[in-house]
Write the structure tokens for this entry.
Amino acid sequence: MHQKTRRKGLGKLLALTVIGATSVGASAQSMNDVQKVAKDRGLSTADLLAAAKTYTPSGVKDDYIMFASGGHAGQVFAVGLPSMRILRSIAVFTPESWQGWGFGVGNEVIAEGFPKGKANLWGDTHHPALSETGGDYDGQFLFINDKINARVAVIDLHDWETKQIVKNPLTVSDHGGTFVTPDTDYVIEGGQYAVPWGYEYAPISEYKEKYKGSVTLWKFDRKRGRIDKDKSFAIELPPYWQDLSDAGKLASDGYIFMNSLNTEMATGGIEDKNPPFEAGASMNATDFLHIIDWHKAEKLYQAGKVEMIEGFPVISLKTALAEGILHVTPEPRSPHGVDVAPKGDFIVVSGKLDPHVTIYSMAKIKQAIANKTYSGKDEFGVPILDFDSVLEAQVEVGLGPLHTQFGPDGYAYTSLFLDSAVARWTLGGSYGPLSPEPDWTLVQKTPVQYNVGHIAVAEGDTVSPDGHYLVSLNKWSVDRFFPTGPLLPQNLQLLDISSNGTEMPVIYDMPMGVGEPHYAQIIKADKLDPWTTYPGVGWDPHVQNLEPMAPKKGMERVVRKDDGTVEIYMTAIRSHFNPEHITVKQGDHVIWRITNTERAVDATHGFAVPVYNITASLEPGETVKIEFDADTAGTFPFYCSEFCSALHLEMMGYLMVEPAD
Amino acid sequence: MHQKTRRKGLGKLLALTVIGATSVGASAQSMNDVQKVAKDRGLSTADLLAAAKTYTPSGVKDDYIMFASGGHAGQVFAVGLPSMRILRSIAVFTPESWQGWGFGVGNEVIAEGFPKGKANLWGDTHHPALSETGGDYDGQFLFINDKINARVAVIDLHDWETKQIVKNPLTVSDHGGTFVTPDTDYVIEGGQYAVPWGYEYAPISEYKEKYKGSVTLWKFDRKRGRIDKDKSFAIELPPYWQDLSDAGKLASDGYIFMNSLNTEMATGGIEDKNPPFEAGASMNATDFLHIIDWHKAEKLYQAGKVEMIEGFPVISLKTALAEGILHVTPEPRSPHGVDVAPKGDFIVVSGKLDPHVTIYSMAKIKQAIANKTYSGKDEFGVPILDFDSVLEAQVEVGLGPLHTQFGPDGYAYTSLFLDSAVARWTLGGSYGPLSPEPDWTLVQKTPVQYNVGHIAVAEGDTVSPDGHYLVSLNKWSVDRFFPTGPLLPQNLQLLDISSNGTEMPVIYDMPMGVGEPHYAQIIKADKLDPWTTYPGVGWDPHVQNLEPMAPKKGMERVVRKDDGTVEIYMTAIRSHFNPEHITVKQGDHVIWRITNTERAVDATHGFAVPVYNITASLEPGETVKIEFDADTAGTFPFYCSEFCSALHLEMMGYLMVEPAD
């Protein structure tokens, strides 16, 4: 075809610079240009500094990966730091069609988590926990709990896919999880709202007798990459509402610390002129920090000192008390975070209705347990360790302390929900000399916008925190972004904590408008070693191995069996499926296997079938098996839903379902 | 409680700076600091310039909002420019639990779109279209098509929520939509893979006789904010695979332009040694640009010159030809974008297998139609306008031209899929004098990473393009981000197109790892006027009005009816629900209404019920109605799932379902 070109004259033509040049080179620019642009955009020098600290040029990778829960989106989000870009969502409890999760692939994993077999297709993810070795992130697995149905999921960080969902048979409400023991022997799931065992019916008037608290220790089989339900057990707790938890490490190895609220055992009932839960559950000046000896508990379980409840082994409260594995001590009321310092020696509790953080000493706790230094027992007989005997320090940090993380330099950081600020304060003891300020002292409060819940410091809950960055997971954004209708994003703010003292600025605002992260962990990117293609062609991600039945190139076929089953063996490669015509009879049961035979990084194909509610994402090498009943006659074009090539639109075929009659 | 503080000595204490100071002030910083940080991070001056151009300080709002489809995620994503931050996802075809979409709320909207009543819970969103007035975005509504089941959704930009989903009764595959006519009289949905009417069964051997192409014109009732199905109609087209479309405007007002592929009518069948679709559908040197006179078609429909097919009025191909509303003209093969220039006078087609963009003149098209300047007819009798008679120009832009957008300055921009680049070239005619270069000339090709599909320029497909920014929607990211397992994000790159000539750098890489945007439109933020709270307390977003039955403060109650129905009238306000105890009997039908009585911006409450698969997001003022059968006995703590206050965890209640026996 010819090119029609009208010219405006030679002068203009000569003015044309070379075609095909790449983007502006650095040499063509000067700092004056930068300053001019900054001025035009109304940026201060501090803004420019922040921009330089967060900007990640094209092709440069982030230094840290933050795994954040998606809240009631039911997913996990991976965010790169310092750029604060969402790198990927990982579908967990809520089906997600981009990843094909729950639309033919992963269905059995999701179904594994159905409470009493009842289809539940969403989750409320709260607390992601990276697997640890020696109390440090090892980058292998990620665990996440679901508050709405009390479930725990396992994600394999080879391929960032959910491998398992376990449903807690005892309760339908969890919160204090997931947290792992220092070598990931157990994934801990603490309960929250007390319910009768097995969430069976019992009127609220029978609250104290029938409603139960609990903590579940899910045994993790690292080799299989699965929770081993048959080696897991739970411990009965009083019907307080157990809240966040942390596992001890180093000095506190072998212990679980677990907050609680509603130790008042309020039962609400505003409609009957009773105090609503918010009032009834906030009457006492203190709630209870639970201190659980899980090493001893494991031995009790192994010795068979359990009751089987809902088919699950439970160490009863009676046994727990008789064997001395459970103690409590007072903590400021309405606590959220309980956080173990890097050496395991201090436990920091934040009670939202007390302006202090309260620091307990593990050495003192051990001594108090040994000496039975009790200030009494609760009404269930749980011994209460004398508060002053186990207290190390209290630091007044501000209003609404919620959650604490640690730096490498003797600093601790606590979110202040009511102040809308992040506090930096100094640890004492052997941490004290690391920071220039006195021990146990508030150093700085940086305002955040607004209502910060959890915070995450890079590796800030491990034995070796990294520092550098802190992310403030703010619940409200109000006026920080262009309004997106009445439903606004959360605001995840990045703070630069690399300097000492009061210098701790907010350097980036990241809207989160695809979920509501509750908690996050930040790992050094170089600790992760993800696959970029599956190790072999015909790989089944569910078992992380080659699938013998996987369709192979040259062996594509459709097999009709006598029993009305049709087996399809299909391959996908740029830019066709093979076979392209599939004819079945209405009523057939279809087993459709597809292998993506690509080996190039990023050569993902989608597979989408109309009317039958099927979609899959086939990463390079992956094989999937999709089953359905061909109950609806018709002509259904299936296609590759991932834009794979110039002839992507031609990558399709027809499923023809012949009417039965 | 007391504060225990050990001091390290007065010197250290004095060194402490003032506590509670805000983040670093600009005055404390100098450009030297910025340069030092840039150097430390390995940033070039060009990087720093890019950082300054994209960085949006805390609280500063973006200038533009990009509405991007989510591909097979089934959603729409709103992204702020220049910061390239995802501000919000808008749930459309795929249920999404953060927004509560499809888990008690919105269920009936989703069900409206079920093909033949069969539950389909995902979508493949492709082409968002903002509503227009006079060919310019008016910021009122957003439309989006679903390729997998041939559906169209309506989103109200007051509250950014999906209001309607219509299922196309004729076909189960669409692509060339949605696009709107200049005043949004119609929302256009072009088909894609030909299927028999109603996607009924017909063997592929009967392709030419039974498989059909089509375009559907959905009448939009702006006042009601709904598509009026009863005033909508379709036009039968040959069984080519209709592809992208655009509506004429100004000089071309009244016309629809629609690409096609597979004018070969290849039927694939690689398994039987036939050429696969990718080969069979790419044999001809040209495909057909469809030119449809929708003004005339509307009159035919109004005059009743339609057949009723699947209960829907269709202008048959025979009638279309008899009445002269359909013409085609050759276009480069495997085209994707057909894009109408701002004045409506030129139509730009990109054929992926031809290195040129081909520019058609509307004046010449009209003349050729009037003069019947045909080069023949296709095998269905559709007159083919002589190519040379309608051609204005061809510009060689590079390999794999895909989609074109326009600037305000005489420039057009075309994505080059195979080159992985974005081309800037000059328009001619009355646009020519606007740019310094000659008419119809390639000016610059900026490499992008990698495999760009669509591009979006700010208001770049309207009668008044804005320029400034171009987003390149790249399909592959390969090595641009930290690898997220075998499934990698897409890469949305921001190009600064505010300068003339060859200066058109990539200034930001944005990973998109929560979906696969196909197409996007970018609107000036100040054209949008979203509500930040609902206009009144008790507002039903589905009808955009106050709901008379909405629960009101002081009128909360539970009403048990004789027929086994239990009606709950509940309010939600920080930090309690009222009532807090709900007791029903197993087998009861529950109608649960909740009003969020908050009036503060961002005071959203969630509502989550375990086991019953229910979640809702209640924005300030919103009322919802959720229905379910209480088929499972037990004790179910329901709670607020949106972190609303310091006593958010206490915002809960118990649903007790008493066993039937």
Summary: Chain A touches chain B through 244 residues (CB under 8 Å).
